[in-house]
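Module 6 notes. Inverse folding takes a fixed backbone as the condition and produces residue identities as the prediction. Think of it as a translation problem where the source language is geometry and the target language is the twenty amino acids. Below is one complete input and output pair. Work through it position by position during the lab.
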């Protein structure tokens, strides 16, 4: 809780002021001056958009390089005398400043104790540092670069207003491909606002559904005007993140901003960019005509070769006289048929002779042939109906009075046994007095 102030005493802090106990204006001004004077010096970088020397003192306005911020800067005579001939309006500088509050007017300004221009060497060193950092991240690798479309439907063009670069790209593209269409975004291509405007235009064209390729083009100029705006880190990262292929055509062949490294294709000039984004219609027509000639020649050679091959086939005897092939096969068939008939006839004759020989042998072994030679088969007639007839092979099988059935070569003879005589088995002659027929042993 604040202690009560004596009557007529001023509040010690701004928090202690009230409507019935305010500070005089001078107290606030003196307190602000005291507060700002405790701030340390700081080195800042910016562009001089205003530079005037009045009675030896330099009155300047310094603007941020990327954002729309500015501050008044004052250099007293001892410092301003060192700036003559080194800086001017439009210069890019670094300055050591300390805030100063002028109590009588309530004006806050920056007092410069030192200032020097940023040399092109320093700027290029920063550009190279950024280039190495992006390379370490892989944003400049060739593997991530996308190929350009063979024939883009719509070409996005980011360039300066009514610039020569825009005319070069469009004129040369239409000379190569008269039907080429462009979606143009005119932006600042130099100065502090250039990176932001180019970045916004690229984002807008990248979102366009018909744009197939984006060209960022700028003509030549001073090194810091060409290199620095298109080496802005935010801009090059935005280009690397696009979905649409980007062609960088900044300055001339020797100029190489960081944008060239992250773009999908680097064109040495805006004219070169036009040659890269669209094909040459005349060259394409010549290529088509050449292809047609080669195709026609190839077809003609193929037809000629096939015709020669067909003629060679037709000249062969088998096609020149096709009936000869049939005749040869007919002659072969006749020869084969004749050999088959001869072979079959010979085989039949041999088999016929063999059958004849077999027949003669069989006939010679048949009982009839034996009977024809004068032999007879003598059977004893069975005494009863159920008793089978018995072939008589020995005289001992029959007795006097037995009836006999004698089978001769031509017919049968019935006889009766009147007398039997048994002889030795090896006797070749046997006499039957009553029958005068060979015995069974003789038949055997």
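Target side of the pair, the amino acids:
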């Amino acid at each position: 809780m604040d202690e009560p102030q004596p009557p007529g005493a001023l509040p010690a802090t701004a928090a202690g002021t009230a409507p019935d106990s305010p500070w005089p204006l001078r107290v606030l001004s003196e307190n602000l001056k005291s507060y700002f004077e405790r701030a340390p010096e700081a080195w800042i970088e910016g562009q001089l958009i205003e530079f005037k020397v009045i009675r030896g003192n330099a009155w300047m306005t310094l603007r941020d390089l990327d954002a729309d911020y500015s501050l008044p800067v004052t250099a007293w005579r001892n410092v301003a005398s060192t700036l003559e001939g080194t800086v001017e309006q439009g210069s890019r500088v670094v300055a050591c400043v300390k805030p100063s509050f002028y109590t009588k007017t309530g004006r806050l300004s920056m007092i410069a104790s030192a200032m020097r221009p940023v040399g092109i060497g320093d700027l290029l060193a920063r550009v190279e540092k950024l280039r190495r950092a992006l390379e370490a991240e892989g944003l400049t690798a060739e593997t991530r670069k996308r190929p350009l479309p063979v024939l883009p439907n719509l070409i996005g063009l980011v360039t300066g207003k009514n610039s020569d670069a825009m005319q070069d790209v469009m004129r040369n593209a239409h000379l190569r491909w008269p039907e080429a269409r462009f979606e143009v975004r005119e932006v600042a291509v130099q100065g502090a606002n250039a990176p932001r405007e180019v970045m916004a235009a690229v984002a807008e064209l990248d979102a366009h559904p018909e744009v197939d390729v984006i060209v960022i083009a700028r003509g030549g100029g001073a090194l810091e005007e060409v290199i620095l705006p298109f080496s802005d880190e935010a801009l090059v990262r935005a280009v690397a993140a696009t979905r649409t292929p980007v062609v960088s055509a900044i300055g001339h062949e020797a100029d190489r901003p960081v944008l060239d490294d992250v773009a999908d294709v680097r064109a040495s000039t805006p004219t070169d960019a036009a040659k890269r984004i669209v094909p040459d219609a005349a060259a394409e027509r010549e290529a088509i005509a050449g292809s047609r000639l080669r195709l026609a020649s190839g077809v003609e050679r193929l037809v000629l070769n096939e015709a020669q091959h067909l003629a060679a086939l037709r000249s062969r005897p088998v096609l020149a006289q096709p009936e000869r092939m049939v005749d040869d096969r007919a002659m072969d068939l006749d020869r084969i048929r004749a050999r088959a008939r001869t072979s079959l006839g010979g085989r039949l004759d041999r088999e016929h002779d063999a059958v004849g020989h077999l027949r003669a042998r069989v006939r010679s072994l048949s009982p009839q042939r034996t009977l024809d030679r004068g032999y007879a088969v003598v059977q004893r007639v069975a005494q009863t109906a159920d008793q089978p007839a018995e072939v008589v092979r020995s005289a001992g099988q029959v007795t006097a009075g037995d009836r006999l059935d004698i089978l001769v070569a031509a017919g049968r003879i019935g006889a009766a046994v009147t007398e039997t005589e048994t002889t030795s088995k090896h006797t070749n002659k046997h006499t039957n007095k009553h029958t005068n027929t060979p015995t069974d042993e003789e038949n055997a």
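Reference fact for the lab report: The longest strand covers residues 42-54.
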